[in-house]
Write a structure and sequence with these properties.
With 112 residues, the chain is an all-beta fold. The protein has no helices and 11 strands. The structure holds copper (II) ion (CU). Copper (II) ion (CU) binds next to loops.
Protein backbone atom coordinates (compact mmCIF):
# COMPACT_ATOMS: atom_id res chain seq x y z
CA UNK A 1 0.00 0.00 0.00
CA UNK A 2 0.98 3.61 -0.31
CA UNK A 3 0.92 6.42 2.23
CA UNK A 4 0.52 10.07 1.31
CA UNK A 5 -1.21 12.93 3.18
CA UNK A 6 -3.64 11.99 4.32
CA UNK A 7 -4.61 8.45 3.49
CA UNK A 8 -3.43 4.93 2.92
CA UNK A 9 -4.28 3.25 -0.34
CA UNK A 10 -6.01 0.86 -0.08
CA UNK A 11 -7.70 1.64 3.23
CA UNK A 12 -10.13 -1.24 3.39
CA UNK A 13 -8.99 -4.84 3.07
CA UNK A 14 -11.21 -7.92 3.02
CA UNK A 15 -10.50 -11.61 2.64
CA UNK A 16 -7.76 -12.10 5.21
CA UNK A 17 -8.37 -15.41 6.99
CA UNK A 18 -7.47 -16.50 10.46
CA UNK A 19 -4.11 -18.28 10.25
CA UNK A 20 -2.83 -16.10 7.40
CA UNK A 21 0.48 -14.30 7.71
CA UNK A 22 -0.06 -10.79 6.39
CA UNK A 23 2.79 -8.66 5.06
CA UNK A 24 2.09 -4.96 4.66
CA UNK A 25 4.58 -3.35 2.29
CA UNK A 26 4.02 0.35 2.82
CA UNK A 27 5.57 2.99 0.55
CA UNK A 28 5.68 6.63 1.59
CA UNK A 29 4.98 8.69 -1.56
CA UNK A 30 5.63 12.12 -0.05
CA UNK A 31 7.71 14.52 -2.15
CA UNK A 32 8.90 16.45 0.92
CA UNK A 33 11.82 14.86 2.75
CA UNK A 34 10.52 15.83 6.20
CA UNK A 35 7.15 14.03 6.13
CA UNK A 36 7.54 10.52 7.49
CA UNK A 37 4.46 8.37 7.97
CA UNK A 38 3.88 5.66 10.50
CA UNK A 39 1.97 2.43 10.20
CA UNK A 40 0.47 0.22 12.85
CA UNK A 41 -2.24 -2.42 13.09
CA UNK A 42 -4.16 -3.02 16.26
CA UNK A 43 -3.08 -6.28 17.80
CA UNK A 44 0.30 -6.52 16.10
CA UNK A 45 2.97 -7.82 18.48
CA UNK A 46 5.75 -5.75 17.00
CA UNK A 47 6.16 -1.98 17.08
CA UNK A 48 4.80 0.21 14.35
CA UNK A 49 6.74 1.25 11.28
CA UNK A 50 8.26 4.63 10.58
CA UNK A 51 8.51 5.16 6.82
CA UNK A 52 10.62 7.97 5.39
CA UNK A 53 9.61 9.61 2.09
CA UNK A 54 10.48 7.44 -0.89
CA UNK A 55 11.01 4.36 1.24
CA UNK A 56 9.12 1.10 1.55
CA UNK A 57 9.04 -0.87 4.77
CA UNK A 58 7.25 -4.06 5.73
CA UNK A 59 5.18 -5.04 8.74
CA UNK A 60 4.36 -8.70 9.31
CA UNK A 61 1.11 -9.33 11.12
CA UNK A 62 -0.65 -12.52 12.11
CA UNK A 63 -4.18 -11.85 13.32
CA UNK A 64 -5.15 -13.85 16.41
CA UNK A 65 -8.90 -13.64 16.03
CA UNK A 66 -11.75 -13.01 13.62
CA UNK A 67 -12.95 -9.42 13.43
CA UNK A 68 -12.30 -5.91 12.21
CA UNK A 69 -8.85 -4.46 12.88
CA UNK A 70 -7.99 -0.80 12.49
CA UNK A 71 -4.73 0.25 10.87
CA UNK A 72 -3.48 3.77 11.26
CA UNK A 73 -0.69 6.25 10.80
CA UNK A 74 1.40 6.44 13.97
CA UNK A 75 3.42 9.55 13.17
CA UNK A 76 1.83 13.00 13.25
CA UNK A 77 1.98 14.09 9.60
CA UNK A 78 -0.57 16.89 9.06
CA UNK A 79 -3.75 18.40 10.43
CA UNK A 80 -5.59 15.43 8.92
CA UNK A 81 -3.29 12.88 10.57
CA UNK A 82 -6.11 11.29 12.54
CA UNK A 83 -7.99 10.54 9.33
CA UNK A 84 -5.10 8.49 8.07
CA UNK A 85 -6.49 5.10 8.92
CA UNK A 86 -8.31 2.11 7.54
CA UNK A 87 -9.69 -1.31 8.35
CA UNK A 88 -8.90 -4.95 7.75
CA UNK A 89 -11.52 -7.65 8.10
CA UNK A 90 -10.31 -11.04 9.28
CA UNK A 91 -12.66 -13.91 8.40
CA UNK A 92 -12.74 -17.46 9.80
CA UNK A 93 -10.16 -19.87 8.38
CA UNK A 94 -12.87 -21.75 6.49
CA UNK A 95 -14.25 -18.58 4.90
CA UNK A 96 -14.54 -18.21 1.13
CA UNK A 97 -14.35 -14.41 1.20
CA UNK A 98 -12.00 -13.45 -1.65
CA UNK A 99 -9.05 -11.18 -1.02
CA UNK A 100 -10.08 -7.68 -2.08
CA UNK A 101 -9.26 -4.10 -1.25
CA UNK A 102 -10.91 -0.76 -1.73
CA UNK A 103 -10.12 2.90 -1.47
CA UNK A 104 -12.97 5.19 -0.55
CA UNK A 105 -15.53 2.63 -1.64
CA UNK A 106 -14.15 1.98 -5.13
CA UNK A 107 -13.80 -1.74 -5.47
CA UNK A 108 -10.59 -3.01 -6.94
CA UNK A 109 -11.50 -6.64 -6.50
CA UNK A 110 -10.06 -8.74 -9.30
CA UNK A 111 -12.55 -10.41 -11.63
CA UNK A 112 -12.92 -14.15 -11.17
CU1 LIG B 1 0.00 10.49 9.77
Amino acid sequence: MTAVRSHFSPDNIEGVRLGDEVYFHVTNLEQDWDVPHGFGVKGANNAELLIMPGETTTLKWQPDRVGIFPMYCTDFCSALHQEMQGYIRVSPASSKVPLSFTLGGNSTQPTK
